[in-house]
Amino acid sequence: MLRAAIIFFVMGLLAFLFGAYGFAGVSIEVGKLLLVVFLVFSLISFVGGITTDKNLR
C-alpha cells in the first residue's frame, strides 16, 4: 500500500510538470488517502503486536 501511495505521488508530480493539473490533483489526493490508510493499518498492527501476549503458544 505504501508503494501504491508513492506511485500516485510520483504520477501526480509528473502530471503537474506536464500541465495536467486536474489529474495531478486527483493523483496526489489518492496518494494521501493511501498513505493515511497505510499509517492507520500500521498503527493497528503495532498496537496489536504490543498488546498480544506472545507467551500463549
Could you explain how this protein is built, in words?
The chain has helices at 2-17, 21-51. The mean pLDDT is 88. The longest helix has 31 residues, at 21-51. Helix 1 (2-17) runs antiparallel to helix 2. The chain is built from two helices and no strands. The protein is mostly helical and 57 residues long. It has one domain (2-46). The two termini are 30 Å apart.
Can you tag this structure with a few keywords?
single chain, 57 residues, mainly alpha, 2 helices, 82% helix, rod-shaped
Q: Give the structural class.
A: mainly alpha
Mean pLDDT: 88
Largest sheet, if any? none
Q: How many independent structural domains?
A: 1
Low-confidence stretches: none
Question: What's this entry about, in short?
Answer:
By secondary structure, this protein is an all-alpha fold.
Task: Chart the SSEs and their pairings.
Layout: H1 2-17, H2 21-51
Helix pairs in contact: 1-2
